[in-house]
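[job 0412] stage=fold_complex status=start
inputs:
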Amino acid sequence: MKMRQTNVMKLCVFLLCLALIAACSNNAGNNKNTNGAQTGENTKSTTTNEPVKEEEPTGTPELPEAKLTFYYPSNPAGADQKTVQDEINKYLKEKINATVDLKPLSFDEYDTKLNAMMAAGEAFDLAWSSRYWLLPYQGNVDKGAFLELTDDMINQYAPEARKNIPDKFWPDMKAVDGKVYGFPIYQVAAKTKSLIIQKQYIDKYKLDVSTIQSYKDLEPFLKQLKDNEKGVIPFGMAQNSWGIYVDRNRVGADGLAVTYQKDDATFKNLTEIQMIEDKKEYYDTMHAWYKAGYINKDAPVLKNINDLKAKGNVAVGIEFTSKPGGEVDEKNVNGGNEVVYVPISDSYFTGISSAMHVISKTSKNPERTLMLINLLNTDKYLYNLICNGIEGKHYTKKDDLYMEPIKDSGYAPNVDWVFGNQFNAFLKPGQSQDVWERTVQLNDSALVAESYGFSVNQESIKSEIANVQATKEEFQLALETGAVDPKDLLPKFIDKLKASGQDKIDKEATAQWEAFLKEKGVK
Amino acid sequence: MSNTRSNRLAGLLINGFFTVACLFIALPFILLIIVSVTSENSLVQNGYQFIPSEFSLEAYQIVLSKPESLLRGYGVTILITVVGTLISLLLTAMTAYPISRSDFRYNRPITFYIFFTILFNGGMIPFYILMTQYLHLKNTLAALIIPTVLSPFNILIMKGFLDKISKEIIESAKVDGSGEFRIFFRIIMPLSTPALATLGLFISFGYWNEWFYALLFVDNDKYVPLQLLLVRILSQIEFLANSPMAEAASRMQYANFPTLSVRMAMAILAGGPMLVIFPFFQKYFVKGITVGSLKG
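[job 0412] stage=fold_complex status=done
writing structure:
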């Protein structure tokens, strides 16, 4: 009996030891593996691409068959994902002798899953990336996750797609090291600050929108609304929607590090304090509007303007990133009322790297993947197939330009901006006929500020920036929404900004800006 | 006289306190149910209300309109919950039992080893590599079950309970000629029903709420559990409602989408079954949760 018990115990100990050893060897294995993966990558990038395992004899000898995987963020497409993929592959097989495995992930899943995959060195070919949103560009370039796309490669495998993109925009694709790791998905690349005005009131009061060039021109209209429309908020504001002040004599927009006078050939940086002092009249106007009841009383405490707009009684609001055709979107946000954009600022170039395709370092077929990118950005048939599904089954063609999705058809990812150059898309109901031309026009005419791409290195002024931020949070909201009288508050605000170190920030920013200009050869 | 009065006062206060406490717990849930059957229009106009001004089952109609993937999600979730809980309970008990035996020489170092894993772990990337490149569990149901089969915390709770079982029972069983396995399955397991029931409930909640491992390891729509399905639907709604990037036309489709009530309806569909199961465990629950505390 005693014997048996000790035997069982021994067995337990033995098994536990085994488990421990297994755990240790797993770790060792991990290390070995990551090294292996790295050397594998290195050899791949230096030597020419090795023949692929899945290779099989086909009609086109110069291109061995390739299987590609494409990860992208998407809404759930529906039951027919596989059917559409088969259709795509039939076409791709003819074109470039490749098949693609589509791997849509929801927006919440995308980063987590791809980060894990890339860290583990798992092989995939194509992914969607963006400058500041999902799968952030620079961060992953730093990690070495993306393959560099050299000019040679692009010229050889994706020349048509490259031609679509204006050369003056191309520098935006460069990472910090000056190399390019992604291919842009060309779409709207400019933003304009606009007022959003409900169409019913424009019609009713015969407002000539071309007369509205700045916030001041709005006042008579707001008065009309206040006097005649009960229950309507003439000008809706919340914590995320203030800032209709624009000075058209200046070059500067949200996201740009410096602002300079338009006619100033030396591009002298305007200081924050000076700009706030210049806004005195604007703050007075806002306060007058607030007192007159043009602005909703809860503006300084309301978190999201869309909560208010959804009720449909906000007559005028602001949109920071208006784009051609955007009025259609706004209709839903405004409780189903039609709206009109009235631009109050210049259009600024915002970059083409907000959406792009990247090739993974682990890709076994980078050339073919680049060819696929080329097709996605140039081939109208392929693009509309992947965006909308199969004609007759998932959508119907109305005429040369327009399509109409079939409801509950089993394929509707609704993410055209993920797949490729949007200007190849069929128009959807509600979009205006010239939306793509207008977008291209807007892109081409957008003002590329001298300061585009310049950012202030904040290392030496970190604490000042934090202090200033806190001060701004304390005062700005109340001033911008007109909730307080700027007479005593504005001087207090400026004093406190100075005390928080705004001068030092301005000085530092100006110095870096001057250095940047010199380096660029502008000065 | 004054004694009974103060007694009555105390009773009143205690009852009052717990009534309020119960209300705090129950009301949000009742509100959840009510919002899920309120029309979107009245939600936008009036906010959340206990008495809805407009009744509507639209949210449920939308969520249940294409039941295939939802039913599949339920199927996957129920399967991993049942199978996972059973395996997990067995292995937890089998791990906890030896280290609860004082006549097992290495019980202390092994207990420490298990405890140690609570404090330190390898992190997500090594875990991912282990699961996909060594165990090859990508795109299998096992990937949803195996990672949470043995939780050190559960093992320690179980050990705490088993510690309290008097060792004389084991001795006498041995004298009567039973082997270790017989003792474990015939004596220890039945004696620890309260602990097993409690842990079983914890573990099954864990499996029921499982979505993260599915996110990492499952590409195939066949194996998507309920919760990940709901995460996806929610993320789609959020995206369409808030993103300036959403296509104009796709936004049109969702213009009249009852975003707020659909969320609540999904919460009820996802959590409902577990609420039904809970009362059946309750009788063990009280006893089991006191595991480790002083008992007469």
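[job 0412] summary: The radius of gyration of chain B is 25 Å.
[job 0412] exit 0
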